[in-house]
Fold these 2 entries.
Entry 1:
Amino acid sequence: MILTAFGRLLLQAVPVLFTVSLIVFILVFLAGDPTVMMIPDDATEADRLALVAAWGLDQPPHVQYLRYMSNILSGDFGTSYSYGTSALPIVLDRLPATLLLTAAAMVVAIAIAVPAGILAALNRNSAIDLAVSGASVLGKAMPNFWVGIMLILIFGVQLRLLPVSGSGTFAHLILPAVTLGTAFAADLAKLVRASMLETLGQDYIRTAYAKGIPDWIVIGKHALRNAAIPTVTMTSLNVIALLGGALVTETVFAWPGLGQLIVNAIYTKDMAVIQIAVFVITVMTLLVNFGTDIVYRLIDPRIRL
Amino acid sequence: MSTQAIPNSPAGKEPVLRYRNASVVLPRPRGGDLPLIRGVDLDVYRNEIVALVGESGSGKTMTALSTLRLLPQNARFSADEAVLNGHDLRSLNARGWRALRGSHVGIVFQEPLSSLNPVLTIGDQIGEVLYHKRGLSRRQRRAEATDLLARMGLARPAQLLDEYPFQLSGGMRQRVMLAIAMAGEPALLIADEPTTALDNSVQAQVLELIVSTAADTGVGVLMITHDLSVVAQVADRVAVMRHGEMVETGDVREVFRAPKAAYTRHLIDLAPRIPAVVRDPATAQTPPAADAAAGTPLLELRNVTKHYVQPGNFWGSRTTLALDNVSLSLAEGKTLGLVGESGSGKSSLARIIIGLSKPDSGAVLFDGRDLFGPEQARRSDVQIVFQDPLSSLNPRMRIVDIVTEPLGEKQRLTRDQRRHEAETLLETVGLPRHMISRFPHELSGGQRQRVGIARALSVRPRLLICDEPVSALDVSVQAEIIALLQRLREEFRLTTIFIAHGLDSVYAVSDDIVVLEKGRVVEHGHRDTVFGSPQHPYTRKLIDAILDSDPDNSRFKRDKADYPQAARVSTQLEQTSPII
Amino acid sequence: TTAARAAPRSETLIIAQGNDILSLDPANHENNSTESGLINIYDYLVRKEFPNGEMTFVPGLAKSWKSDDLITWEFELRDDVKWHDGTPFTADDVKFTIERVKADQKLLSSAVKFRTVEQVNVLGPHRVQVVTSRRDPLLLHNFVGNGGLILPKHALETPEGAEKFFAKPIGTGPYRFTEWRKGDRLVLERNPEWWEGTPHWESVIVRAIPETTTRVAEALTGGVDIAVNIPPEDITRVEQNPDTGIISFNIARNFALHVRNEDGKVTSDPRVREAIDLAINRKEIAEIVAEGYATPTRGLFPAEIPGNNPDLTAENAFDPERARKLIEEAGVVGAPIKLSTPSGRWTKDREVSEAIVGYLQDAGLDAQIEVQEWSVYNSRRDADTLGELYLWGMGSYTDASVILNLALLRRFNPHWTNEEFVSLSKEIDQAPTEEARQAILRRAQEIITGDRARIGILYPKAIHSVNNRVNFAGRFDEMIPAEQVRRK
Amino acid sequence: MTQSLMTDTRLPKDTEPYVDDAHRQPARPLRDFLASLLSSKSGLVGAVLLAAIVLITLSADILPIADPQKRSLSTRYLPPVWLERGVIAHPLGTDGQGRDILARIIHGARSSVIVGVSAVLLSGILGLVLGLLAGLRGGVIDLVLMRLVDAILAIPAMLFMLVVALVVGSGIAPLIVVIALTNWVVYTRIVRAEVLRVKDLEFVAAARVSRVRVTTLILRHLLPNILPAVVVVATLNVGTVILTESSLSFLGFGIQPPQISWGQMLADGRQQLATSWWISTFPGIALTMTVFSIILLGDWLRDYLDPRLP
Ligand SMILES: Nc1ncnc2c1ncn2[C@@H]1O[C@H](COP(=O)(O)OP(=O)(O)OP(=O)(O)O)[C@@H](O)[C@H]1O
Ligand SMILES: Nc1ncnc2c1ncn2[C@@H]1O[C@H](COP(=O)(O)OP(=O)(O)OP(=O)(O)O)[C@@H](O)[C@H]1O
Ligand SMILES: [Mg+2]
Ligand SMILES: [Mg+2]
């Protein structure tokens, strides 16, 4: 079954990657001449044209695209205009930081949302429920950069508990992960609450209660596992959203993830880097979908891969 | 009526369950109380099967759930007396209830799939009862669970432990449920509509099992059902509920022979009976031979084959053969009964005739013209009434629009004409005119199904297909709808195809019967021929599974030995002071 | 790597810049902060310093240099310099560096560096001769700034080439390359064999912190020792913080309005252009928008730049009455006029533009601001579709002669011409003395500002936060060489 | 014995919950709507809040507030009126250019709300059409559309932003277009899933048996049953889009002066968060309240649109 799913993944990947590369190419092409941004202020127009020719940007677009694609097929993923080196390692360099932050943010989100959602569902219409709903609305309504800066001012500057920015140690991870995590926790808590409520109303929960086993087993084993599927779905969607880099949060915390790289590449119209970055994101997205399917299967034996 | 003995109960013994003047009320959101059950008196003794009957919503399930305190949130239970296996239910605290559940009372719910946790193995679901209720070790649990499953008549019980509910058939699931309920060795077993979701033949097996379990372990059984044939077949005593109250209790034979309450009488009148031909083929009427020769049939199917393609594995996909070379014909004005197990292709056939799906090969001739040929027949001459009255009505359309929709947009009816038409149609199906401006969810199940029939009738069809039009309805409503269909059939001179699970009702309404098995027609003939002398073993099996509503004619005989009082020493339950 | 990581915080200098290093190749970037990082790894042949606010060249890898005709230049190189891998530094490396920049069109410095160089001759292991195509009084300027850092021939001319080299580059500078975590930091460690003595810091970290608020927070908490570009409104906070102080100094940058004067634009009328010039209260902008951290001016080059015109001051430049009168005379009262500006590219750029728009409105024009994202802004400028006025903060120049670069003029003021200006651009190469050369440059600035093709507004100052444990005064060229930052 | 089936019900029927439906004719959708809204606490709070915001937005020009663009060097960084140095003329204080925060919030509401609502409308409609197409047609169209959706999700929105800014220019309209261009996939996915769900319900089969036209099938049977889910998502999406605008402002791409938006105020004011907190805090509160009210309204709408709930 896993092989089947993997085969499907490969089948899906080809058309998606192709579509993506074409759209990105068109967009970057429309964004105009990258040399305008590259060339020094005091260079002449002739210098610029020489640069254009050196990069082959004077060719008609379809020729450029075909050349690009055939290079890719022969394993050459292009050279970054701004770094002057191969684009692939530039992108792959950023991947660990992005993946780390994504994972940490998800851990934070789940650690907050799952207990909160369960508590709210078990105490429907109580003060707890209300508090969870209120907090989740707040979490959803506050812009990330604002939350991030507030966290820096409070925990970094005022309390001096945590490092302000950067990466490297576990302490560096906390604030950005919390910034992202709380935003996702808001949505997730509502979802956990809803799916717990739905699950708790199911016949098999009544069966479980009728067995006279402890409540925590009914909730933790019978209900939670069944309520997990939508949670997993949303988590995977969030992971996908984060794979492109949590641009705002990365910028605030000077976190060296993909988001900053991509945005700078977009600003400088660095075609090769944008293409590879989007490729990598697409591949990661497909992998996450694949992983999600496997997790579904582990949670729920009825699901076919 | 506090502690007086209930008539016809085995006197002088302590019952496993004893309710006196029990009631459950639910506070309404805007004040006031909604009584769900009122003043219920009920006794269940060891090795006794008590059937609780009544129409939907009469409070049967509430009564049962109150013995486990699984009532809706906020619901309040009160009683003059409520004793289960020696424990006063009125004074249990949360831990007391937990201790009671599983080890003193076990329950089997109606829907075997949804009542089992879909993501846990069978072994796990039985094992946790064995662990928490009987403290068995891992190895003991496995052995005991295997033994339990084997006792429930399941083949290869050891393997089953590692399987999941979805891998089991309906009957197997219900056996597993029973195993779970019995795992804690309870004194009282509650079975809430344990067979409603099952096929006729599987139903018989499960009932058999419940009866034998009661006989083997001496457990008292409270069996909830609305099917009187089931009651007649298995129950020792019967309790009839209506509107939350107990209207009659008594020995099953007596109740069936001489029902006291008007309501009970009404129910017993509706109870299905085995057609006489089945018991005595001699009573069969010979089919009128003339019919066969009479001209072209209205509907004729020639070698219709239908496959469904489902997404399957890597490259290919799975195909299901839903209809396999089906040929049949139906003369004008006749009713054809279509029977067969679930999944045998009945609905597929209906969808093809109605034009919702295309056959892979074969032809469907309506009035001599090919429905799928180049020159298509008038489709509006064929209409359908669906099984589920709720999902077959658009929840966001008013009844007036629903019933007049088939009249078509081309006809350009004015608002008033439309209204008038709708009112007439409602009247035809016996609904008050004013209902035309309602939405489907504002109607009861029976009313909705009447709307479905009105919609089908709006274009004056010549052929009406009823795909299980009553299986989602209450017994008494079922009878109403079938009676209505009978009447309309004559009134409108309809040719009808009638699909249903209940063979007795199919027999009652049909002229001819077609039996489908795995998409193939295995038998086709006059109803008396098919029921009286079935040729195919499959048909025989179906007919044998019909239960008769006659307590004297029970198939589930059992030994009613006297069991000693609670063999196991019951654990002392934690109690709080009585809440009354 | 481990040495740098293990270096105690007290032995580590951490500098926070607004953006990451763009490249480790000194010839392939056009970015001040990148250069500021790279000067710790590589060395220049000559260095520029600003004693008494005047730019002078001092020895670097070259001990001395001379040229009699401004065509043939001879450099005497140090003979005690070693690359980080121990290989001795020779004249071949200088020749290689210059020729590399000239040869490879893809290198960004290629367009502007060593344009006049015709030949590089190695006269001895530590003597090199550079021959230019014409008299070039500015040749030394080529050896400072982007593209001027000297690279090792032996390490770059391997079959694996540049990509391999720049993965772990070596230089002759005071610090060795340890690690570049892209988007995060450049980590350097002490080069104990440096030719000028043992470097001051055990390790140096150059961090990229794009968000200003975060950079300030890092400075306040001591996470970094120097944080560049502190916004004026945070100055008090930094100063009141017991561990930090503010340094502020002149830099090689100016804010000017570039004016399009082609037919059909309201600014084609010289009266309108003059009115715009007169309408702007530069002192107020400097005082209030820049909180005093800028010098109001009508000029285009700050005083440190050779050839700047000191007469173009903000004195008496503000005359709102006359501005209004001119607008009325020109008959363009209420005429729409658009001022394009980037936002966040230079300190307070948008706020300056907003203030200017306010003055133009006071003068009777219907002025509107048009804010554009930086890369869009560049493309628009290139496509000549910005507003009648646009703000530009030109910088990082070392000489006022860029003003007479006609190609550059065409990129920034495509529709403005002036005969005298064009002839000045031809004369400048023939200027007999430095004095004459600077006179030409002063005249050129007078013409372009007099005709209001460019209207000088401010010379902004750099504002950095510096931790009290270190001393750093700031440099006019905005470089932060780790060696010039000292522990107290 | 088949008699029992023929018999009419002899027992009296249950009393009907509705004795007479006369009061329901004609239907009063508006009254039902309002009644439902008034009886829901969260719905009411959300509606009142949102109505107030919209009302203030609409009357921005006639309210007695300061000119939002008026810069005054003498009034820079004034705190809110209740703090020391605060003045009544600037109740919520002023920013670094002496502009009145309250006036800017009120005027900024307009662009924030316009962007939120129009981007959601535009992407909703686009997503609805494409989702219907994918769900109903299936096959190759479905395959292509869904791969396109995958692709759009992987491509950074900033790229679209940059291209549109270059090709069309910046401003509110391009911003809306860009958000719509990347946002429609959300709706396409939902609509497609809903179509696939509803398509197989029996009432759709019944409509097809009735030979209704395709347009009727879509308009009368599919859409009304799909829209509620879409509407609920859309209400929540409005909040998300308003937040997106603020994030874009943070990155220098949002609504630019002279137009005012909350996102821009928040982003500009973030640097003064430590010194003059009011500059970005009040727009933040306005934004949070708007999103809050929309979420509350969305929650209520979900219940209201479910015909099975009372
Ligand atoms: N959770 C609940 N909240 C409110 N009312 C309820 C709830 N569950 C059941 N009821 C009501 O209680 C009454 C009795 O319900 P109960 O389920 O006992 O009926 P039943 O006889 O088992 O019907 P059926 O044959 O349909 O299962 C019904 O009117 C039902 O509407
Ligand atoms: N749309 C479909 N796609 C794939 N397979 C289908 C589809 N509809 C029916 N089948 C399969 O075709 C077979 C016949 O199904 P059909 O619904 O006709 O049976 P049925 O006799 O009506 O059963 P039931 O009594 O449960 O309604 C079954 O195996 C079913 O799983
Ligand atoms: Mg029930
Ligand atoms: Mg069927």
Note: The first helix of chain C runs from residue 2 to 6.
Entry 2:
Amino acid sequence: MTDEDTGQQSAFEDLSVKSPEDDRGLIVDIEGFEGPLDVLLMLARSQKVDLKQISILELVEQFLEFVADVKVQKLEKAADYLVMAAWLAYLKSRLLLPEENIEDEFSAEEMAARLTYRLQRLNAIREAAATLMARNQLGRDVFARGRPEPVIVTRTASYDVSFYELLRAYADHKTRSAIADIRIHKREVYTLDQALERLQELIGTIPDWTDLFRFMPESVMGEEMTRSVKASLFTASLEMTRKGEVEIIQKQPFGPVFIRKRDRKD
Amino acid sequence: MEIIEQIRIIEALLFASDRPLSSIALAEGLPEGADVDHLLRDVQQQYHGRGVNLVEVAGKWMFQTAPDLAFLLRKEVAQERRLSRAAVETLAVISYHQPVTRTEVEEVRGVSLSKGILDTLMAADWVRPMGRRRTPGRPVTYGTTDHFLVHFGLDSIRDLPGLAELKAAGFLENVNTSRLNLLNDEKPTEEQPELPTYQPDIRE
Amino acid sequence: MEIIEQIRIIEALLFASDRPLSSIALAEGLPEGADVDHLLRDVQQQYHGRGVNLVEVAGKWMFQTAPDLAFLLRKEVAQERRLSRAAVETLAVISYHQPVTRTEVEEVRGVSLSKGILDTLMAADWVRPMGRRRTPGRPVTYGTTDHFLVHFGLDSIRDLPGLAELKAAGFLENVNTSRLNLLNDEKPTEEQPELPTYQPDIRE
């Protein structure tokens, strides 16, 4: 029993025929129902009264009977029905017994009213759904232009670039490439080893105090190289002094540095 | 430009399109200051009772065949796939209750919503997520699309059939998920529905 | 069935059809014995002078936008688009280094040049091929157009400010000029842009 191919209205009619009320003992399948509320609504409608006037007690009876007769195929589905049955049984007992004042709980009448409300709401939304689907639907009942004439859009791009942006781009490019292209030129240097070698080689030939920078090689060209030679010669002279090979003396700040070979015998 | 010429332009633009056009879009083809709405009413009047009518859907305008000729045209299209009862009912709950959460749809229908149903409705471009409810868990809310309105020939969701009756009967009040779950009773807490993002909420 | 009803049916059928319909096809929707050709003439008459006309094409019938309104369906959209940064920079490099080959542009920029950029610059009529370099492979050289000069308000390409002027104008604030001098390819003489657009490339 599927409800997919029949209208919802006829689906209900078919089911109500098989309801316990009419066919006691008939084994009922819950597959065709969308849960306990669906069944309750079907049963309520079988009372053939306005949904506002359904008898909740009668509805409870009907549902309990329905569940008793149900041929249960899927346990998880049946669980919903059993919970509903338990709740309805509880509601029934509350309705029949004198109301006690239980705090934080709804009265039995309120609970019954809410159940009625839910059934009415579900019924109303089903009717609305039927009305909605009965409307003229585009592509089913009414039709749009079958051969639309599309608007052909030709886009002519016009770019807006200001002179400023052009110059900015070039300048940014220059800035980036300047930073990216920094090259540390390999400096021509006169190494400490070279200076030590030269000093050690020449110092023996020099009799007395001599200006350190007179040991500079003749071939030195350019400011950078000169500075490098001076620095290395000076460092070399300090190193040789430390080793006790030479003596150095500077008579005034920024004055020339003199060097002489140290006589070991002193 | 004469009115008759402006009407011709509106006619041509709408006839050429297979989807609704807004009056703003139509105005682009007209001289500045043209009274587009008035012109549209004129065109609508001129096509009244003809085989093709001008209708206002989703706040836009389109020509479509007259509804009473459906009998003639229906055979021309491939039989549309029938929606399951569950899908139809879910669509109804979403369209009348929007914005509505998945849990609320389940509450109204009294049955859990299988995943395929929302997918189907969204694939048909009838339903879309609208935002999140400002309640714990921030559940996603769903509502209908413009395409839904166009498909069912509605100008807005206010025009849903039977909306006023459902509202008057109190069936569109905030869905309270604890109404039947009396086994562990909770006082109903009114949820503040989130303001819809794009479409006006049909509820107050 | 009244004539007016038959006309409505023809209208709806032609409107909804995705192809022109023959009078035989149309007759299937009409009561037997209906004078389809006469009805079609009627419909054609009714739509005469409107924004949409009924036309006969190869013995079949269809609605079509009135020819004088066809312009409505061809929109020329002039889009103000932003040039990508890469494109602006390429334009700048070409304008300063012209005539310049693609490979040279890539060398100067240090990145390879995507095909779209030169196309865009040529489509915007700012850059054009100027000739061929007389080197192996005879690569095409590019330079700027008159439109480029007009757009940027230059009398000639010589009016482009040089690096010193750019620096004076604050464009190169963060760059140490001595660093610029370190660049092998930035000998001051090369900063002077080349001669105007028209001259053929004479470099060997």
Note: Chain C touches chain B through 21 residues (CB under 8 Å).
